[in-house]
# Entry
Amino acid sequence: MTNLAELIVFGGTALGMALVAGVLLAFSDFVMRSLRLARGVAGIEAMQVINREVYGSGFLLALLGLAPVAVALGFYALARVEGAPMFWIVAGAALYVIGTVLVTMLGNVPMNKRLDMMMTDAPETLIYWQHYVRRWTMFNHLRTAASGLAAGAFVVGTTLLV
# Structure
């Protein structure tokens, strides 16, 4: 890659990670709180619909698609970038893959699948929902921080390349 190409690719990746962080932040900031406060089973049903709709979304494409990009750029930085920029790019890649994608796959997704299998108005669903909201949101806070920090690391690494 040329220096200009590196700046574009690293900067574009940072932008993508920041956009993912923004969507996750919305859930941590007010979406989950709103769903928890909804009357009756409305929050449960809404979350079930959200979890089903995310599978065909551009958000999921960005969230998961950035993982192989981050890995590839991390390896590229190890091989072709020197000094502090290399550190920041590798750190950003690791933060994104581990803190965003791995937490999603091992934390949020299993909870989403369990909630999806439950009857909306069943008593056990109402009990699980209280646990779900707290734990899912905690995992989401981690994903938000990781993707935001990963974006920041890519920005720092890209800036140091100049």
